[in-house]
Amino acid sequence: MCYRSGQPMLLKGSPKGNVLRVVEGWALATDPHPDGTRTFLELCGRGQLLGETSALSGELRNADVTAVCRTLVQVVGHERFLAGLGCNDVLVGMLLDAQQLHKTANVRAGLRRFGVASGLSRLLLDLARTVGVPLVAGIPQKVLADVLGVTPRTLYGAVAELGRRGAISTRWPVVHITDEVVLKELARSDA
Q1: Torsion angle of the four alpha carbons 129, 133, 135, 137, in this order, in degrees rounded to the nearest 10
Q2: Which of 41, 63, 67, 149 has the fewest CB atoms within 10 Å, counting from its CB?
Q3: How many angstroms separate the Cα of 27 from the Cα of each of 6, 17, 69?
Q4: Is the C-alpha dihedral spanning 6, 8, 24, 180 positive or negative?
Q5: Residue 8: CB partners within 8 Å, gap ≥ 6?
């Protein structure tokens, strides 16, 4: 199944249903609040699952998920997903525990405590690791800025800094990692 940019994929509060596995593209998970604001939860890429927590727990969906760009997913019914696990209680428990840890330890959710260039470096390394290639494609600048908790203008300055240092080259919506060593150094710094 293919979702277009901005199209809702899963809605918070909806009943359990299909599990989606991202094949190509990016999905943004957020927690919507009654006042219309949203809390960033996660940016999911190739190989990551969406909706599995609800399928495992039997509870309502716990987040909104929206396609960031054209996003292709593999759809698996929740019954088939559970059957595929063999209803192995240990495995199900491990998956639920992993999801909880992922929410609290996700490098993407903790980026705001770093300087912008360092946080962006960490984010780009994490996203590139997710897709398995040294480039990140399809994520608009505004989404990256939201993830980092900065304005698009501030993000632009950090992108320019990483470019000047030779760590990345950009041609939106593609960011190519040109020097992973430099990017890792920047990720460790408070730059």
Answers
A1: -90
A2: 149
A3: 9, 17, 8
A4: positive
A5: 64, 65, 66
